[in-house]
């Protein structure tokens, strides 16, 4: 009787774990990524203030995709390093490497967006754009390769999230998504804008005071994982059309790929009853 009770308790506990697991996915380094399937991966790369985030969010909502803002992880790491007193000016690679070696990253899903936490620290959208983070995030990512490696490995884990809650796939925006994070992406975009348009968008729409042109120079010129146009990426000059026009343009490409995926699924063979053979 006692053994039966223990077995039932174990079964209930296992069921509870299975039911709650889909809400979270731990980003463990070296964990195998799910193989490619009928889900879609869309990447949007480009410089600062080229409207990547609002367009990616629009695509996520329109096509039921998991939205991944890669910069959120870079910014969270910048925050925890600042709090730990490890500033980029120190150029102390061994200290940064040691810190990240023991750092624990988690990615989880909130509504349709992937969220990141590092060592239990999860920042809101407003906190991610704090003045000290804006001033240092590009310096960290351009000076320390271990930060870039850490982010790439953990962002790749987000493909686990596309498997759950019946999402059609993921849309990932940042600077190296289609080159180093998801080079196998189904649709890749490369966003461009004039310097004037970048500065205007940063100041008047995003309400931030950092210089997007200077930020881009750091990302283009870094020695490792530099920002470059991904192979086979569709070039989009976002400053030459309205937000609605940009969303309509990229949506057309995504819709086409989703349609191809949908109709390219192998059909299950039908087994005929014995009297029909």
Given as residue ranges, the uncertain stretches (5+ residues, pLDDT < 50) are 9-36, 266-277
CATH superfamily: P-loop containing nucleotide triphosphate hydrolases
Total helical elements:
11
Strand order in the sheet with the most strands: 3-6-2-7-8
CATH topology: Rossmann fold
Helix content: 40-55%
User: What is the domain tally?
Assistant: 1
Rg of Cα set: 21 Å
The CATH architecture term is 3-Layer(aba) Sandwich
Could you give a quick summary of the protein structure above?
This protein has 277 residues and is an alpha/beta fold. It has helices spanning 2-20, 52-63, 70-83, 93-101, 125-128, 131-143, 145-156, 177-181, 195-204, 212-221, 243-263, and strands at 24-27, 40-46, 65-69, 105-110, 113-118, 169-174, 187-192, 234-237.
Note down, in words, how this protein is organized:
By secondary structure, the protein is α/β, with parallel strands linked by helices. The chain has one domain: Rossmann fold. It has eleven helices and eight strands. It has helices at residues 2-20, 52-63, 70-83, 93-101, 125-128, 131-143, 145-156, 177-181, 195-204, 212-221, 243-263; strands at residues 24-27, 40-46, 65-69, 105-110, 113-118, 169-174, 187-192, 234-237. Strands 3-6-2-7-8 form a five-stranded parallel sheet. A three-stranded antiparallel sheet has the order 1-4-5. Residues 9-36 and 266-277 have low confidence and may be disordered.
Q: Which SSEs are present, and which pair or pack?
A:
Elements: H1 2-20, E1 24-27, E2 40-46, H2 52-63, E3 65-69, H3 70-83, H4 93-101, E4 105-110, E5 113-118, H5 125-128, H6 131-143, H7 145-156, E6 169-174, H8 177-181, E7 187-192, H9 195-204, H10 212-221, E8 234-237, H11 243-263
Parallel strand pairs: 2-6, 2-7, 3-6, 7-8
Antiparallel strand pairs: 1-4, 4-5
Helix pairs in contact: 2-11, 3-6, 3-7, 6-10
């Amino acid at each position: 009787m006692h053994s039966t009770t223990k077995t039932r308790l174990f079964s209930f506990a296992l069921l509870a774990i299975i039911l709650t697991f889909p809400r979270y996915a731990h980003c463990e380094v070296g964990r195998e990524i799910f193989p490619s399937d009928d889900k879609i991966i869309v990447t949007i790369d480009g410089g600062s203030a080229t409207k990547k985030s609002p367009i990616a969010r629009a695509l996520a909502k329109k096509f039921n995709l998991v939205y991944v803002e890669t910069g959120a992880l870079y910014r969270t790491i910048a925050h925890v390093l600042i709090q730990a007193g490890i500033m980029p000016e120190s150029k102390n690679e061994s200290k940064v490497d040691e810190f990240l070696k023991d750092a624990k990253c988690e990615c989880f899903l909130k509504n349709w967006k992937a969220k990141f936490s590092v060592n239990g620290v999860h920042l809101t959208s407003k906190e991610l754009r704090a003045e000290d983070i804006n001033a240092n995030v590009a310096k960290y990512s351009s000076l320390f390769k271990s930060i870039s490696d850490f982010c790439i490995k953990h962002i790749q884990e987000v493909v686990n999230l596309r498997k759950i809650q019946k999402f059609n796939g993921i849309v990932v925006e940042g600077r190296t998504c289609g080159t180093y994070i998801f080079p196998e992406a189904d649709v890749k975009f490369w966003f461009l804008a004039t310097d004037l348009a970048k500065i205007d968008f940063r100041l008047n729409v995003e309400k931030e005071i950092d210089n997007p042109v200077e930020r881009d120079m750091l990302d283009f010129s870094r020695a490792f994982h530099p920002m470059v146009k991904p192979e086979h990426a569709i070039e989009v000059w976002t400053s030459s059309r309205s937000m609605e026009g940009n969303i309509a343009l990229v949506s057309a490409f995504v819709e086409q790929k989703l349609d191809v995926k949908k109709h390219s699924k192998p059909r299950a063979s039908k087994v005929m009853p014995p009297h029909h053979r």
